[in-house]
Amino acid sequence: MSKIDIIAGDALDELPKIQASSVDLVVVDPPYNLGKDYGNNHDIKGFDEYLEFSRKWLSETHRILKPTGTLYVFVGFRFISYLYDILDRDLQMFFNSWIVWHYTQGMGKTKGFSPRHDDILMFTKTKKPKFNLDAVRVPQKYYRDRNNMRGANPGDVWEFSHVHYCNDNRQNHPTQKPEGLIERMVLASSDEGDRVVDPFSGSGTTLRVCQQLQREAIGIEINPEYVTMTRNRLGGVFSGFDSVDPRMERVPRDLRRPELRGEYLENHREWFLTHHENAVKKFEDSVASMYGDQGSQRSRQMMLLEEREEYEPNTAIDSDEDSTWIVPS
């Protein structure tokens, strides 16, 4: 069982207690300074005060990271350029990616465009970070011998649904993040047994994900009610992460040969749906629709066209990979 600690306290007080260069991954979802109510405090600070507050915890995360370590920071639009500047110029960390988390539900506007994304900055301590691409690949659109059927790089635009209030895993927290979103960060930038830190633990999503992925984790949370919430959540029954990238459920086209299809579909479950038992049924339904006897008329017609070689997808766009084709070993 992984060691998971939740510390009741202020991140600025508790982070300095963590040994330097001892952490593999830091995931930070800090207050955005938008005035949200977090139970025992509001995130309302003056402009300079908020930047100084951010500079302090950013400096601490840099200190505790190993040379191969990675930092993911959720950032509000008002301060993203300033936090980027601190990471890049002041701390001299190495920019890796500007990730966009896209979601389909949210606050609606009548004057202007409704917000449907959050920004996540990914910085590393050195030029040689740990990064496990195979662990976070997404299924290819088409089966091709020249494609790497282990999957494609997910890119820097990630679609995960919010944790809806009707979801059994929904916690009483205003900014709860989807488990599938955090899962991708943990899988990509750490290995089993590695140490992960979340300085603003909130509803405990990072700790719950690390618990299931066999990582050690330390969460720091200033609100004692959220600490209790997290402990209860960690003690609950696990039935699968509460969100999944929709691409994980898609079935590659052109799997006409039954023996090839059977082998791939078994691999698909292991590669893309581990810890997502609640998404397997939808995937199986997609398989039945596309290749089973009960498939839709459109799918059967497409298979007939493929068998008669009257249908051939555009090979210039039949893979999500941007790099050279790789033949699977």
Describe the model.
The chain is an alpha/beta fold and 329 residues long. The chain folds into two domains: 4-234, Vaccinia Virus protein VP39 (Rossmann fold); 247-307, no CATH class. The chain is 32% helix and 16% strand. The protein is built from nine helices and eight strands. It has helices at residues 11-14, 47-64, 80-90, 179-189, 205-212, 224-234, 258-272, 277-291, 297-307; strands spanning 4-8, 23-28, 65-75, 94-102, 117-124, 157-159, 195-198, 216-221. Strands 1-8-7-2-3-5-4-6 form an eight-stranded mixed β-sheet, with helices on both faces. The longest helix is centred in the first third of the chain and has 18 residues, at 47-64. The radius of gyration is 22 Å and the shape is globular. It starts with a strand and ends in a 22-residue tail after the last helix.
Quick overview:
This protein is an alpha/beta fold.
List the secondary-structure elements in sequence, H or E: EHEHEHEEEHEHEHHHH
Mean pLDDT: 84
* Count of the domains: 2
- CATH class descriptor name of the largest domain: Alpha Beta
* Strand order, largest beta sheet: 1-8-7-2-3-5-4-6
- Termini separation comes to 33 Å
Considering DSSP H and I runs of 4 or more, what fraction of the residues is helical? 25-40%
Can you tag this structure with a few keywords?
single chain; alpha/beta; Rossmann fold; 8 strands; eight-stranded mixed β-sheet; 329 residues; globular; disordered C terminus
